[in-house]
Amino acid sequence: MLKTFKIGGVHPPENKLSAGEKIQVLPVPEQVVILLNQHIGAPATPIVKKGDTVKTGQLIATAGGFVSANIHSSVSGTVVAVDSVPDAAGLSKPAITIKTEGDEWMPEINREGEAAWDTLSKEDIVKAIAAAGIVGMGGATFPTQVKLTPPPGNKAEFLIVNGVECEPYLTSDHRVMLEKGEQIIVGVQMLMKAIGVSKAVIGIENNKKDAIAHLQQLASTQTGIEVCPLQVKYPQGGEKQLIQATTGRAVPSGALPIAVGAIVQNIGTVLAVYEAVAKHKPLIERIVTITGKSVKHPGNYLCRIGTPVSKLIEAAGGMPEDTVKVIGGGPMMGRAMVNVDSPITKGTSGILLINEKEGARRPMRSCIRCGKCVSACPMGLEPYLLARLAMANLLERLEEERVMDCIECGSCSFTCPSARPLLDYIRLGKGRTGAMIRNRKK
Amino acid sequence: MSTLVITIISLCAIGIVSAVILYFVAQKFKVEEDPRIDIVEGLLPGANCGGCGYPGCRGLAEAAVKSDTLDGILCPVGGAATMSKIAEALGREVSVQAPKIAVVRCNGTCDNRPRTNRYDGAQSCAIMHTLYIGETGCAFGCLGCGDCVNACQFDAIHMDENGLPVVDEEKCVACGACVKACPRGIIELRNKGPKNRRVFVSCVSKDKGAVARKACKAACIGCGKCAKECQFGAITVENNLAYIDFNKCRLCRKCVSACPTGAIHEVNFPPRKVEPEKAPSTPVEEEKKNEQL
Fold this sequence. Notes:
The complex is a heterodimer. Chain A is of the alpha/beta class.
């Protein structure tokens, strides 16, 4: 019996259509739009102005605070605007627009070879990661260097690498593990050194047997790295779920993973760390899955950050006629986009085109108190109750019912036989409760 | 027989002793409450809507009794009439506050503001607002899910066939519940005005003129023509958006005629006298103007 987390969870259809597609390089677009807030925390501060020429990999905006990340140019060319552009949600967000001219990289980026990193100290590695503007690439986009420097009094015991990719449809992490396994192993060693641990666990769901075998073979020659096959269950990629699945430890309510001695990093992040430390390459491109039942050529593309989503859709054979929804991310946690010209960001793990048949919603009916959402919730919450409390705006009750523990995985909405948008209401209540708690602290 | 007598006597004795104890306890722990609070509460409508900002009608009554001047205390439901009754009961003077009404400041009808996408998520403006721009290109306008309608306890606001909420003037008591419910801050409490006549800018878009106009034909583009036209200094233009101060506005309606997009509305005025018509500017000219902005 394979390991998994203990409570809740659902099993949506996997639909990994692009799992067999090799990573292809998407051509550099004529123009990129680089958003200044691609991470959680303060937006970056631009350090270039209109008319400046920049090279690929050049720093164009610096971290705007402790929880923030540097941003680099993903192409070489001329800055044509530093202003606001509509993002995927259609809302104006500050961004830098660069017109591409050639593809001249910064000289210090070692594209071919690999620099020696054995001599680097713990601090050097964290510094290199911060300089490269790396954020959590599973979608949460939390600045990685912050995660690697745990608050004083906490000691990390092991590194957990998240190769779960429990979201249906998405395959970018799967392909990275298959095609860049050697680099992943080196990246894991770098991260182990950066946080000062001697043990790392790579958690992979059992629907990626080839990746498990590949990494197991690579890890067998290294000490301290263990590949842990996991039972297929959503949301195993959630930090707390993954820690429980791989180590059996439960992170207490309201605490960070470091409370049980774990630091979790995504596979994409590990690759970015490898490239930053061994090749001095900042985070300027990422692997994005483009998929959907009606898509002609679902695939995995290496895209420059700032490439319009529409270019990626073109590469996959164009937008199918029966598309009713474009989703940034996976079907469970991703968000529908209104603007397909919006740029790919550091957190875009996939673009999913939903066709008419799949996109049809069942009409919402009354709650029949079946309790399916309660058994599906991986955090042990009562989603039907939270949703009702959120509708009534009873924030104190919501806090008592631990709404802040909700990881917004959507298992409750997925499982509801009455098709109630439980998560939408819970998220609203969570946002308001969070604001209330912050105001109280002031 | 004797059992019956004993029972009656002993019960009476217990009753008398308890009554005496209760009397002294009540004297000892008496809660002094101003009897006027009950009187004032009786004068209030009793809807407990919270529109006054106090927790229900009793909350307002307590505050009114405590306050020396009644300043800043207003029952929006009962209005000036109720407040003067309260003032009379308390022997105080009340400054007459103009009656107010909820005003929906959005022009984004289906005709004016084309839908660019379709939303099929949870039918709540608050949720839609946290997710994205909305079904149109305007990030400021009405989302149309009717959170205000659900918030109204007086059945005074309804969605019309154009997809915008409409306030029923007869029923609206200006409690402000809809103002709080609207995540985009479109609804405002404004003076009801003499003979219910009002002039207001029916738009809250802070987008630049060209962007606002592209999203909605009847958006305020912040051109400032109304402010120039106004002789009373009632109109201010800030962040590409005009705002009419209802305390200064004298209802001359010149701004309404001056507005190139028709974003300023006049309500309950008699039909205008027919003026010699100026040639309406063509769309091409308007575009040019927008670009200049």
